[in-house]
Amino acid sequence: MITISLCLIVKDEEDVLARCLDSVKAAVDEIVIVDTGSTDATKSIAASYTDRIYDFAWIDDFAAARNFAFSKATSSHILWLDADDVFLEPDLEKLLALKASLAPEVDTVSMAYHLAKDEYGTVTSSLRRNRLVKRARGFRWIGAVHEYLEVYGQSLSSDAAVTHASLRHDSDRNLRIYEQRLAKGEKFGPRDLFYYANELNDHARYEQAVLYYSRFLLTGEGWVEDNIAACGKASDCYSSLGASDLALEYALRSFRYGPPRPEFCCRIGYWHLQRDAYETAAYWYEAALNAPKLDQAWSLQNKSCATWLPHLQLCVCYDKMGDRERAYAHNERAREYRPNDASVLHNKTYLEGVLERPGDATASESAAQAEVSR
């Protein structure tokens, strides 16, 4: 059986650290905590779990801090988390099973990273990350901000998942780091162009964000998943700026990099729905439902665009076209995912009525205005 060193870098995490460590301590043999300057009770909390606590002077470089943490690990394998991550009980059981059965030739194990859930507990946003790696490989973290673990060799996709359960976030931290680097005259490579654009987007600086998304795409050197994501984010920026035609252009541009994704089909469908082009909108929402499934995707996935949202919008489209039977069928499919959704229930009541007594009413306008979640 392998042994596992859990490595975390922390700063002022007193409100979440114990929750994180309690969720995973049964599966790890060693806990390594690297503190980058806490002024709260973080280190005293950490001390109740481990004596492997180290200080690291913060130098605006996440990769440097993570590499330092990895250098202190002594087990055969290293698992990394952030302090606001947790293993839910079913995933802890999967991690324990993985620990007992992992083949010696496997160098790196990826796990789903669940970023958001809806009110029904259904995961709505997730991606995959390399989480557990063989220490002897000496894998290194790359990048001062939005760092990534550079791995190679034989990999395994685990069914265990890590859940992000943040209580707070320093929303300006990464943007400050990027802008300090720019002020020093640093020239950004493709990856930094993309993530700097993301920070600008998150801060509603949309005009600057689309400029950097464009610069990123023009390099022609981006990872394909980042290229696709940049198209979607630029499309959202233009929507926020009221430039709907440019929003459509960037949604369509995503098709340069791979098959249509549900998120982009929904964006295009919504563009046509806003213009009362119901048949065209329905085509794109059907395409969202029929798009290739990406269950092991490494990029961020908005799962609503492949499940309930297209069905809800198809209900609107078919109702507008006078096909109430198909509208009702799609609303019922949406209700399978969101049984208590107000728009779904409104449509159900309305359609059950008009299917018996045809009238001039139309399906919920709130449903028709359901834009793709960003």
Automatic annotation (TrEMBL):
Q: Which Pfam families match?
A: Glycos_transf_2
Keywords of the record, alphabetical order, are: Transferase
Per its UniProt record, what Gene3D superfamilies does this chain match?
Spore Coat Polysaccharide Biosynthesis Protein SpsA, Chain A, Tetratricopeptide repeat domain
Top-level taxonomic group: Bacteria
Q: What GO molecular functions are on record for this protein?
A: transferase activity
InterPro entries, sorted: Glyco_trans_2-like, Nucleotide-diphossugar_trans, TPR-like_helical_dom_sf
Q: Which PANTHER family match?
A: GLYCOSYLTRANSFERASE, POLY-BETA-1,6-N-ACETYL-D-GLUCOSAMINE SYNTHASE
Protein name per Swiss-Prot or TrEMBL: Glycosyltransferase
Q: Which organism is it from?
A: Paenibacillus sacheonensis
